[in-house]
Every structure is written in structure tokens, then in C-alpha cells.
Amino acid sequence: MSGTLVLVRHGQSDWNLKNLFTGWKDPDLTELGIQEANAGGAALADYGIKFDVAYTSALVRAQHTLKLILDKVGQPNLETIRDQALNERDYGDLSGLNKDDARAKWGEEQVHVWRRSYDVPPPGGESLRDTGARVWPYYLTEILPRVLRGEKVLVAAHGNSLRSLVMVLDKLSKEGVLALNLATGVPMVYKLNADSTVASKEVLGDMSGAH
Ligand SMILES: O=C(O)[C@@H](CO)OP(=O)(O)O
After folding, report:
1. Does 63 contact ligand 1 (Cβ within 6 A)?
2. Quick check: helix, strand or coil at residue 137?
């Protein structure tokens, strides 16, 4: 058995609440988002884990979520590395648009393909494959070596940047990843084998309501 990798999507942001495509835009958490991050932190405290290092994106909603979690697990001063490689998928021209307005304009199916497909980019933005092409190398070179040394590593990031990682860890197909939605503030605890494959995965909360 090697180390532990914990992935958590940030709590609800202002733009999640307003139903706007967000991407690299930088809204903070809502009150509910703060509660979700605190609940995720409390679940990790109950689980009894102490981290060796934390990673987050260059965006406030993920950084704020990480801070709340670290307070809950009693590690407010933990070494934290921020990198835009972990940023949300760039939504391009959709950024800032209302998701229902986009459905009315382009149709339900097209918007679902832009939101959840593997290799169809939204106009001017990144497909999930494009996002994975920056998240995965960062994971391999920066995060995974520390996990393989036996460390416990926390990553607070975003719905789609984490979907690109979970797709590989969980061995999901292009079709399988269409249905993958991550809930806000719910930690996923992966134990990795020494060869970097997944030994076990535990979800500390309810993923069923995610959309
Ligand atoms: O707007 C976004 O950046 C993402 C995450 O909130 O939205 P979606 O769930 O549509 O990919």
C-alpha cells in the first residue's frame, strides 16, 4: 500500500447559484458553499486523516474551500501549493452565460455535450480532454510522486478538472464520463498501490444529487 489521495470539489460558488457557466472566472463561495466545505472538512476530521500537503487551483472558490477544510482537520498552516494547472475547464465563450439561456439558444442536447462530453470543446474553450491534458501531467509530475512516497495528499479543485482526473483513476470510458458528476464539498479518498493503481476508493458523503 502506498499513500492516500483525497480529491474534493469546491463548495457552491456564487455563479453555481446563479446558474452561470464559470470556468476560469473567479467567484467566491456562497453561504451554502461555505457550509458544504465545512461539512467536507468535518467528514475528513471524522475519518481521522492528517495531510502532508495540499494542492489547489489559482481560483478563489477552490482556495477558500481548502482553507475551510484545513481549519476543520486542524491543519490551518499545512504546506499548500496553488497551480492553475488544476483550474476549472475553460468554458470559453460560454463563460458568464446562464445555462438555461444557453439551452434555449443551442438546445438541451448540445449544451449537455459541451458540459459533459469528453472531446467536444465549448466554443473558444477546453474539452474535458483538453483539461485533462494539463491536469494529468501536473498530477503525474507533482502530486503522484508524493502519494507514492506514502504521503497523504489533499487536492481541492473543480468539477471538471477533477472529472478529468477521476476518469483516469476510475478507468471510465468516454461514454462513462458523460454521466460522472461530482458533488460540491464531498471528499473522495483514494488509496493507491505502489504501482500508482487505485487500491480503494471511499466517498465521504452523498454524490447522488450532483449535476
Ligand atoms: O460552470 C462551470 O465552470 C462548471 C462547474 O460549475 O459547470 P458545469 O457543471 O456546467 O460543467
Report:
1. no
2. helix
Which protein residue has the closest C-alpha to ligand 1 atom 8? 115
Q: What is the ipTM of this complex?
A: 0.95
CA 4 to centroid of ligand 1, rounded, Å: 27
Query: How much is the pTM?
Result: 0.97
Say if residues 165 and 136 touch (Cβ distance below 8 Å): yes
CATH of the domain spanning 4-203: 3.40.50.1240
Q: Which residues pair with 152 in a beta bridge?
A: 4
136 contacts 36 by C-beta, under 8 angstroms:
no
Instruction: Give the pLDDT confidence score for residue 164 in this predicted structure.
Output: 97
Domain positions in the chain: 4-203
Tell me the three state secondary structure of residue 87: coil
- The answer to whether the CB of 88 is under 6 A from ligand 1 is yes
